[in-house]
Design goal:
Blueprint lengths: L2 H14 L3 H21 L5 H24 L3 H15 L8 H15 L7 H11 L6 H13 L1
Length: 148
């Protein structure tokens, strides 16, 4: 079953069960996907659906950071609940240990020797672990690995 069909089915189930938060998140996701579909002028593939979801998750993570800085834990918790719903449709994220291993593999693959190779290493990581990689953590690990 395609990801679009799965999301539509889950939306209908959540709507009938009156799961307000889930309905709102899936409606937001469907709207963002529809906007992307109009932009591209065609139906979205499963990978493109995942890109839309990853973008929404990233936006919510940034919001959580700002809400916590502003002392609004209630809003941060709401954003986290939305992230949890969206992440159910994304591949499992890499753990910090797996990310470190991926960084080592990427450094070896491109034969990186210094900070000038950081872009090539990040390119390999994003290619191989798209939608599963925490870009901020990967960037920190690559910097520390290449500067050592």
């Amino acid at each position: 079953m395609s990801l679009a069909k799965c999301i539509e089915d889950d939306f209908l189930v959540a709507y009938k069960a009156r799961q307000d938060v889930r309905v709102a998140v899936l409606r937001m996701l469907k709207t963002a996907a529809k906007n992307k579909q109009v932009e591209l002028g065609r139906e979205l593939s499963d990978d493109e659906w995942r890109e839309v979801m990853a973008k929404l998750v990233k936006q919510r993570l940034e919001s959580i950071e700002y809400f916590r800085q502003g002392g609004r834990q209630d809003l941060a918790d709401k954003e986290q609940a939305e992230i949890d719903i969206l992440r159910a449709y994304l591949p499992a994220a890499l753990t910090p240990e797996e990310t470190a291993q991926a960084v080592e593999a990427a450094v070896t693959e491109v034969q990186a020797s210094g900070m000038k190779d950081m872009g090539r290493v990040m390119q390999v990581l994003m290619r191989d672990y798209k939608d599963r990689l925490d870009g901020k953590l990967a960037s920190v690990l690559v910097k520390s690995r290449l500067s050592a």
